[in-house]
Structure formats: C-alpha cells, structure tokens
Amino acid sequence: MKAVNFYGARDLRLEEIPEPKIKGDTDVIVQVKAAGVCGSDTSKYAKFGPHTVGMTLGHEFAGVVVEVGRGVKNLALGDRVTGCPALFDGEDYFYLKGEFARSDNLHAMSAKVPGCFADFVNMPAQNLVKIPDSLDYQSASMIEPSTVVLHGFYRTSFTVGDDVVIVGAGGSIGLLCIQWARVWGARHIIAIDVDDRKLEMCIQNGADKTINAAKENVLEVLAEYTHGLNADLVIEAAGSAITASQVFAYAKKGGEVLLLGIPYADVHVERFYFEKIMRSELKVLGSWSCVSAPFPGKEWQNSVHFFNKKAIRPELIITHRLPLVKAPDIFNAIVDRTELVGKALLLPEL
Q1: DSSP 25
Q2: What is the per-residue pLDDT across 211-251, written as a single tens digit (0 to 9) for each?
Q3: Which of 15, 78, 105, 239 shows the smallest number of beta carbons within 10 Å?
Q4: Is the whole model's pTM more than 0.85, yes or no?
C-alpha cells in the first residue's frame, strides 16, 4: 500500500509498504478515505523531525472497516468510522482515574505506531467511533480536531451570552473554535489573526468582529468592541510563543484564558502581560488531547452529533483535497506560507 513516511525535518516520502495485519483480538483494519493535516504535523515537519524515524504520519482520519479481530464486538465490516488517535502504553494513576489526557502513558498514533496518511491503518476497536451514513468522510476526518476544541471548552466555565476572543483564529483549530463558540451561545465572537485572508474565513465561519494584529492595536480595538471590559473567555489557538505570552491582556477581569495552541518554543511573558493574570484575577487553563471518560469521551459523541446536524460545518474550513503523493507539497506550502490553507485533506483514493 501507499504511505507517507516521516524521516526527518522537511523529509516526507511516499513509499510502498506492507498492508497492516490483525495482530490482536481487538485490532481493526480501516481503509482510510480522508486524512487531515494537523498543525502539530507541520510543526514537527518544519522543526523537529519524527518521534520514530520512518513512521507513517497522520492522526486525523475517517474511513471504512475492512477487517476486525475475533474479539471485536462493537464494529463490523463496512462500518463507517472516525478514529481517536490517543493510545496508551500502560495504566498509571491518571489513566485509572479516567483522566486519560493527563496520563504519562499517552501518545498519539504516528509517534510510536503507524499513522493514517496511508491506504489502510490498524486501530484498537475502542478508538474507533461510528459515523452515520449521512456524514461524508471528508467532514468526518475533521472530528478529531473538533474534539480537541471541545475538550478545551469543557475545561472552561464558558456559558451562553459570554464574549469570546480567539487568537490565531484563522487556522483550522481557531475556525472550529469560532463555530463551536456559536453553537455554545457566545454573544460576540472576536477573531484575531495577522492575515486578512484568514480573517475573511473567520467571518465566513461565524465571527462577529475581526482584528488584524499586524495592522491594528489589539488592546484599543478590543476595548472598543467590548466597552472596555474585554472578553469573558480568551482562547489561544495559534500555537505561537508570541501570542501565548500576550493573550492575558485580552481577558475581562475575573475572566478565563484557555491555552489550546502548542507553541513548540519557549514562552517569555513580559511583566505587563503577566500582571494581567494577577491583577485581573484570571483563571488560566491548559488543555491537552481530546479524550475523557468513558473513553474516548463526550467530545467524540457530541462532535459526531453536531457535525451530522450541520451545526458544525467543516466544509467552510477545508481548502485543499490532495492525493498522498502531494503531501510534501502541501506541507511546504503550509510551513512556507505560500498558500492560504485552512484544512488540507489527503485522500488516498485520488
């Protein structure tokens, strides 16, 4: 089969490898119909290289079940599924508490086991979530990033009528934050980014106001939008060391800051921004992964439900649909910012 394998920084290769085989009673083989390129994938591609040299990349996907282990009871041949990429090497204190995202044994597919940028993938049955016939594979491949957003939202006290600021709103995670904030009942959704083209996508996805941080004074414009109060909830979705150090200034006194983006760099916070945490008595929340108890969690069930009801519309975010052979090209376009990319999908059957 074809697979996109990761050998080092800026080194992706489309290769022919053996198809995965059933090894355990609860293994399931899925034919991949659509797989999404994640920001964490491109960050590793640009900077760090793979956890395991030569590993098949990718952890966002949807497909169809083509083979099951003899112990699998919840899935059958032909079932349409999406996959939770959270895997565990063992059981520790937090795993046994059902706080799976906090387990030291947590790792994602494509780190130690092959990912989904391939024709087929082997997954544990418990990690596969059925999708209805009315939900297309391309949309369903975005359920995983949706669960990342929902996992973060569940950490907050965000409620109907709150004002929300989303920083780095033009990326796929930021755009999903906008859509979920609308479903959640936000009063005003304010999108911050540095690219006017991405800010236009924010409006298309439901943002009420936009601020271009490269052209405008964010604090002044935000104060104007919110009558000097700022936002009840600020979400850092850019994964930038710069924005992660500044978001505290955008929250209302007594408000919350949710850190969703992964900077992959040291974050240095100037005194002005750090004192906002203290003087404004902010609650700062970290969020990691996409799972809760009972595994894989309500993040998955609710994402499938609201995707299927068209309350969340991934088609507004998807900008590229490409064959596996084009993986290096789209990775370079994202890293080098030569194209406007919302969500890029790899479609093995192309």
Answers
A1: T
A2: 999 999 999 999 999 999 999 999 999 999 999 999 999 99
A3: 78
A4: yes
In a domain, 294, yes or no: no
Q: If you search the block for the tokens 């907050």, which residue do you land on?
A: 156
Number of structural domains (the chain) is 2
pLDDT in tens, 150-183: 999 999 999 999 999 999 999 999 999 999 999 9
The enclosing domain of 126 has a CATH number of 3.90.180.10
The residue among 110, 116, 114, 108 whose CA lies nearest residue 32 is 116
Within-domain flag for 221: yes
Token pair for 309: 């009801």
The secondary structure of 85-100 as a DSSP string is -EEESS--HHHHHT-G
Beta-strand ranges (E) seen in the chain are 2-8, 11-16, 27-36, 55-56, 60-68, 80-83, 86-88, 106-108, 120-124, 128-130, 163-167, 188-193, 209-212, 231-236, 251-259, 283-286, 318-322, 343-346
